[in-house]
Specification:
Layout lengths: L1 E10 L2 E8 L9 H11 L1 H8 L9 E6 L8 E6 L4 E2 L3 H13 L6 E7 L2 E7 L5 E4 L4 E10 L5 E8 L3 E5 L11 H17 L12 E6 L8 E6 L11 H13 L9 E4 L5 E9 L2 E8 L1 E11 L17
Parallel strand pairs: 2-3, 4-6, 11-12, 13-14
Antiparallel strand pairs: 1-2, 1-17, 3-4, 4-5, 6-7, 7-8, 8-16, 9-10, 10-11, 12-13, 14-15, 15-16
This protein binds pyrrole-2-carboxylate (PYC).
């Protein structure tokens, strides 16, 4: 009987599962090489942790590894139901909170190495966490797209640690009552991006879609709905998505260093964001809170036909 020990948390509603023991050891001299080894060689481990019946497609997993850069606390590879993420904002807040919960870190500055680069995090004394993300930028502005259903939309293509198509003119109210329509239009956008060969820099796949709109609360600046690569929507405002949005606001002259941006999610939870410049680069900081939800032993009994998780993406028959 195999066991994997994990700690679950949620950051603004979006779950993170940090693997504490039972992870495979990875080959590779660099973090991107280890990420590739994890992606290509350890699919069953990934789906056994994330997919039903032990998980769900909304969970982001975090695999902790020794630091890659001197001075960092750890390296981390984020993963989900379809693969790996270069970076994950809500996951980083959840990971920092988890390391504090287990007594491995105290309030203060902690660097974490991710495949997208090293991020600086600050665990505040009230338990909230600020993530100074990787340099973020808008790659293309106002890119028009015709969806498979004939609808026309436009949006910005931007990097915030993952690639996003950020769409303003989707025509939908950003409310959970519209979930089916929001999911449908996001998935149509993703299909149209692929069918039209639209990518991020260096041909990178745009695997996140962010629909933006007015906030529900007057104290916030905007609301979003973020469709993640595996077809689940982000319950939080999405750390990398908010970073990509901040980069677009800077490019439009609508946000400057010193300004605070309050980003509301489709569930009403909030991240605050700000930017600094590092030369020409825009470095976003995202602040939010995470809460521990479970300390778990994932148990895999011999003979369990679903030990590797249900593959919800491939029809069984
Ligand atoms: O917070 O960056 C994020 C994120 C990416 C996918 C889900 N959450």
């Amino acid at each position: 009987m195999r066991k994997i020990v994990a700690i679950d948390s949620h950051t603004a509603g979006e779950p993170t599962r940090v693997i504490m023991s039972g992870a495979p050891s990875l080959n590779g001299a660099t973090l991107p090489e280890m990420r590739d080894d994890f992606l290509h060689t350890h699919t069953k481990f990934r789906t056994s942790v994330i997919n039903e019946p032990r998980g769900s497609e909304i969970i982001v997993g975090a695999l902790l590894l020794p630091p890659s850069v001197t001075g960092s606390t750890a390296s981390v590879i984020y993963f989900n139901n379809v693969g790996v993420l270069s970076m994950c904002g809500h996951g980083t807040i959840g990971l920092v909170r988890t390391l504090a919960y287990t007594g491995q870190i105290k309030p203060g500055l902690h660097r974490l190495d991710t495949p997208a680069g090293t991020v600086e995090t600050v665990l505040h004394t009230d338990g909230s966490v600020t993530v100074r993300n990787v340099p973020s930028y808008r790659w293309r502005a106002n890119v028009p797209l015709t969806l498979p259903n004939g609808k026309q939309v436009s949006g910005d293509i931007a990097w915030g640690g993952n690639w996003f198509y950020i769409c303003h003119d989707h025509g939908l109210q950003l409310h959970l009552q519209n979930l089916v329509e929001l999911q449908d239009v996001s998935l149509q956008i993703r299909r149209a991006l692929q069918e039209n060969g639209m990518t991020g820099a260096n041909g990178a796949l745009i695997d996140h879609v962010e629909l933006t709109g007015a906030p529900n609360s007057p104290v916030n600046n905007a609301r979003n709905f973020v469709m993640c690569p595996g077809g689940a929507f982000d319950r939080s405002p999405c750390g990398t998505g908010t970073s990509a949005k901040l980069a677009c606001l800077v490019a439009d002259g609508k946000l400057a260093p010193g300004d605070i941006w309050r980003q509301e999610s489709i569930t009403g939870s909030v991240f605050t964001g700000s930017v600094i410049y590092d030369g020409d680069a825009v470095i976003p900081s995202i602040t939010g809170s995470a809460f521990i939800t479970a300390e778990i032993n994932l148990v895999y009994e011999a003979g369990d036909p679903l030990a590797n998780g249900i593959d919800t993406l491939t029809p069984m028959c």
